[in-house]
Amino acid sequence: MGQDKELIVRSFHFVCIMTVIIGTISHFSDESEFAITMSKIGLTHIPKDLPPKTKVLDISQNNISELQISDISFLSGLKVLRLSYNRIQWLDFSIFKFNQDLEYLDLSHNQLRKISCHPIVSFKHLDLSFNDFDALPICKEFGNLTQLNFLGLSAMKLQQFDLLPIAHLHLSYLLLDLGNYHVKESESLQILNIKTLHLVFHSNSLFSVQVNISVNTLGCLKLTNIKLDDENCEVLIKFLSELTRVSTLLNFTLNHMETTWKCLVRVLQFLWPRPVEYLTIYNLTIVESIDEEDFTYSKTALKALTIEHVTNKVFLFPQTALYTVFSEMNIMMLTISDTPFIHMLCPQAPSTFKFLNFTQNVFTDSVFQNCFTLVRLETLILQKNGLKDLFSVGQMTKNMPSLQILDVSFNSLESDRCEENCTWVESIVMLNLSSNKLTDCVFRCLPPRLEVLDLHSNRIESIPKDVTHLEALQELNVAFNSLIDLPGCDTFSSLSVLVIDHNSISQPSDEFFQSCQKIRSIKAGNNPFQCMCELREFVKNVGQVSSEVVEAWPDSYKCDYPESYKGIPLKDFHMSELSCNTALLMVTTGAIMLVVAVTVTFLCIYLDLPWYLRMVFQWTRTRYRARNVPLEELQRALEFHAFISYSEHDAAWVKNELVPCLEREDIRICLHERNFVPGKSIVENIINCIEKSYKSIFVLSPHFVQSEWCHYELYFAHHNLFHKGSNNLILILLEPIPQNMIPSKYHKLKSLMMQRTYLEWPKEKSKHGLFLANIRAAFNVKLILDTENDHVKI
Ligand SMILES: *[C@@H]1O[C@H](CO)[C@@H](O)[C@H](O)[C@H]1NC(C)=O
């Protein structure tokens, strides 16, 4: 393949011209930091305020008519000066005597008539073409320009030894503008030692130059502006006969040629036995008429004929008259591109063509059908034509046994006849089907030994899995389609290059990295990646292969969805293992729950958690209630916070534990032995005490149950409770009371015990604090007590 590409370039002939131009451009490109462009701004003089360091100055297409030494002498670093398309009429080369580095001077397209000479040695490129010189402007000082590569000149007349002063230079390129040449009688000009000679004639008049130009060595000849009719055709032939005799002339280009068909065939016929190997005609216009012309395909040195950009001004003509001349050519390479030609004929005898390029014509599916004579054809390019049916293309190749490369890109090819068997010649290794209208079906109609397949810019949605016959495929380009996944390589076991960017791949499957072991390069950017759990595997795989394999990573690989990730490079996309792995998530949740359960059980069993919870619950409920009871209701004539009823047996606990704890918080207690009013009966005292207290605390124990008095107290308090309708009873169970121990007559006590609304005195010392705090909380209310002395605020 590489070889053929080279052939194409060479056949375009530009090789010899391009080397000069490219060489010149690249040579100066690194001066760009001191480059100044001031073209097309109507300047009449070179501005005086340019930085003296300027190296490249483009001042073309202005109105400058005069150049003086003071204009440029201060630009001592100047290397490139472009002054084309101005109105300069006279030039004294001595103005450049302070520009020692000046290498490139373009003065083309001015009105120069005269130059004054001065020894300058630095020029590499000197262009004086397209001016009004009468004779060739050659100073004898030009003979010292030993570095001169390019020389452009113009003249109205020529003399044999005009170029003698520079004959010893080894010029690469000599441009001779003969647009104003007017001499009618025959002249001659001798040119020595040039690689490329470019002659430009008048663009609008018939070719009439009768100079006998002789050359010693010449590699490339280029003629621009050739207008011919049937009569003056011989003038050109005569002009060329001396020039094309030299055996070194391998490349010949005719540029902007307008001719009759008859004259074109005459010119081709003239060149056929000449040494020219690469003939290019660029921008050809055919006028007048096209008729059958005889052409003798004698032995020729010609390898490649290229005709590009043809305008046909003849509308009615026998098609075969035109096409036969080309189809029967006994050369290797033929390029006819950018023409209105609708067809090309099958050669009548086995043909010498190895390379045919018919880019950008209007060929249809009928081209080369049933053509058995293109037996040596290796490369066929039918890019940008009107081909429609992939099956016909396959059929066309059937009789081209040497065909290796086929390019049918930029047509309107469809592959709808999916089920039918399609045939290809087996020799094809490279097939370019890009920019067509092909669908998934195309994979069922491909040459079996393909190595390179270009299918970019089609309408493919998926690559069928059951395509098994592309075992040799190494490079696959399916960019700019609608694929939703990467392919696996089970079907393409040799795949090493995959281009699949600009598709609709959102969740690339693992299969690609698993099955494509031979992959050297994958380009999958610019797809709408869904940055979810499934993508992590792909990102991981990309991270594992070597960095050259994934093309355009990481810049072209971005999240498209979800919205929160949009635009984020895939390489920065991370998701935790936990949020993606359901099994792991379940195991983790289970483990956490187990730990919680064990902890809870432990707390319940060993630390009596339920007791604490009950306490806390009680506390909050008390506080809540206290807050909800209207204060006024409590503001009755209360003297105490609490009345405590207990059995004599429990007195020690009450006095040592309960009372100190409550009184420490300024809770006023009514104790019978302390606060009983003498003279009143015991019952009166009890009722009095209960009524004057905000709450009544009962310390329950087996002794309490047995005490008659205590039961009275409880009865009154309970009565009081229901009377007032509030919950002012606090029961403390100091010691457990067996159910059967409570005498049946005490049914109030029984029912209270049943409701379990008592607070149990914990045995563990650690719990005593919380227990007492809980009791205290019941009194945590703002209450104005009606004491004898004062109103105490709590
Ligand atoms: C196929 O043709 C297109 C368009 O002419 C071109 O850009 C591409 O490089 C070709 N493919 C190959 C593999 O040569």
TrEMBL record:
Membrane topology: Single-pass type I membrane protein
Keyword set, alphabetical order: Disulfide bond, Glycoprotein, Immunity, Inflammatory response, Innate immunity, Leucine-rich repeat, Membrane, NAD, Receptor, Repeat, Signal, Transmembrane, Transmembrane helix
One GO term describing the cellular component: membrane raft
Membrane recorded as keyword: yes
SS bonds (residue pairs): 422-445
GO molecular function (one): diacyl lipopeptide binding
Protein name in UniProt: Toll-like receptor
Cross-referenced SMART domains: LRR_TYP, LRRCT, TIR
Coiled coil: none
Gene that this sequence comes from: TLR6
Localization in the cell: Membrane
